Amino acid sequence: MTEFRPLDRPVQLRHGTGVYTWGDLQSFVLFAGPDIIEDDGLVLETGLEIQRVTKALRIPWILKCSFDKANRQSARSFRGPGMNAALKSLQNLKSKIGCALLTDVHETIQVPGVAEVADVIQIPAFLSRQTDLLVEAARTGKVLHIKKGQFLAPWDMKAIAQKAVGAGNADILLCERGTTFGYNRLINDMTGLVEMRKFGFPVIMDCTHSTQLPGATGESSGGRSEMVWPLARAALAVGVDGIFLEAHPQPEKALCDGPTSLPLRQLEPMLKNLLSIWKTHSAADDPRGVCGGAGGTDLGKKAHA
To answer: What is the set of domains in the chain, with CATH numbers?
Structure first.
């Protein structure tokens, strides 16, 4: 039986709002926010509501928001206000809300500027094999959230993690976000969460991008946001160290990834449900420490030595 155990060396982020820990099974960490900066007011509204909910439920939360969406299918699709303006906005919003921030990078030239603002740097799925980008991000010393490419098997992430470790950074989170299954379709293999965690790094489930229908409209991607909740429930039941999702007050009006975004009003009941599942196998509730996955293989142990 494969059990989901605390990792030998969890990943930690120290921030003014506290210490975030992935891998000790004391709690799961939530990455949540709007897909992209549409305007400061929307990000502020969404962030404050997520903060209210997560504080009440005592769920560690980090704001997720992209400053740019570089992989748009159509040149007419919204990409954001531009890097400099967006990063300045994100810095101001972090201060107003009082939270840590995750955002992604797309080119090596962006890394220094993003590292000044972000607490967690995300490597997008389409760029997960881009060695120069991964190494440059790793050298910042920031926690890295590496999304598994839709074209990769879970065990392919071992070599990708080794790139970051080789650059001197073992603070790595590996993220599942679906696998290409024919045209305009993604599927999720929950055993992949267990497979990736065997490398000794925490695993995150991206519950919104996993519902994507890539390129389905011809101009942009579609999605099935009604599947966000079932995927999150399944991931918590298997065992994960964090959940990633995008939420929006009015997904039908979102300028990017509306079809996959969770309606903000559904966040609180969903998280209450996920907490119930989490408590069935959390380390805090299991005096034996047998809570379900491996404590880490040689890669994770050597990386954290």
So the answer is: 11-70+78-303 (3.20.20.70)
For residues 274 and 281, what is the distance between their CA atoms, to the nearest angstrom?
12
- State the chain's mean pLDDT as an integer: 89
Instruction: Quote the percentage of the chain above a pLDDT of 70.
Output: 85
Instruction: Annotate 25-77 with three-state secondary structure.
Output: CCCCEEEEECCECCCHHHHHHHHHHHHHHHHHHCCCEEEECECCCCCCCCCCC
Higher pLDDT, 37 or 4: 37
Buried residues in 233-272 as b, exposed as e (16+ CB within 10 A): bbbbebbbbbbbbbbbeebeebbbbbbbbbebeebbebbe
Q: How far apart are CA 296 and CA 199, in angstroms?
A: 5
Crossing angle of helices 267-278 and 40-57, rounded to 10°: 40
**Higher pLDDT, residue 75 or 49:** 49
Question: What's at 55, amino acid-wise?
Answer: K
Note the helical H segments in 98-172. 111-117, 131-138, 157-166
* 275-291 per-position pLDDT tens digit: 999 988 664 444 433 33
Residues 6+ apart with CB under 8 A from 153: 179, 192
Instruction: Say whether pLDDT at 142 is over 90.
Output: yes
In DSSP terms, 13 is beta-bridged to 20
pTM reported for the whole predicted model? 0.91
Tokens of 293: 């996955």
Q: How far is Cα 173 from Cα 202, in angstroms, rounded to an integer?
A: 5
